Amino acid sequence: MASVQMQAYKVSEVQFINKVQGKQQLKFSNKVSYNVRYSNKQFCEGNLTVEVLDKENPDTINIKVTLVGAFRILKDVEKEFLHVETFKELFPLAKAFVLNLSVNAGIPPIYLQNVNIENQEIYRMEMGGGQ
User: Fold this and answer.
1) Separation of alpha carbons 61 and 53, rounded Å
2) Dihedral angle of Cα 103, 29, 18, 65, to the nearest 10 degrees
């Protein structure tokens, strides 16, 4: 059984630079950042930013997309587990958005590489209460 259920999502920011001239060799690099904010024990909000750019000349092509997802927490589990589960819900939406944006802009499709978040370090900072 799932630990979270996505209630809604939105694309909150899009930046798109396309100054590719003719047949140009591009070497893409991806950057992904993800944060989760917990409003209470039943709800959290995930904020995912994905950036795709040319490694050698980021001013030639650069796509930056930020998605915000609202999630209902269905069962009491560790925050690190919720972090992973909410990421797995939002990341495919970001991949589809970048792919569609590139195709609709008249450039070859850009496919984001999958991110295995379970093998990444997750940093937790607890705020408030002087703790």
Assistant:
1) 6
2) 70
Helix (H, G, I), strand (E, B) or coil at 87: helix
Higher-confidence residue of 51 and 39: namely 51
Compare 76 and 50 and report the one with higher pLDDT.
50
Half-sphere exposure of 30 (CA within 13 A, CB side): 16
How far apart are alpha carbons 44 and 127 in whole angstroms? 15
Are the C-beta atoms of 51 and 16 separated by less than 8 Å? no
Nearest by Cα to 1 from 91, 73, 68: 73
Q: What is the pTM of this model?
A: 0.84
Phi, psi angles (nearest 5°) of residue 101? -60, -45
* Beta-sheet strands, E only, within 3-60: 4-18, 28-38, 43-54
* Average pLDDT of every residue of the chain: 86
Instruction: Write down all domains in the chain, each with its CATH number in brackets.
Output: 4-114 (3.10.420.10)
Q: For residue 29, which of 99, 113, 103 has the smallest C-alpha distance? A: 113
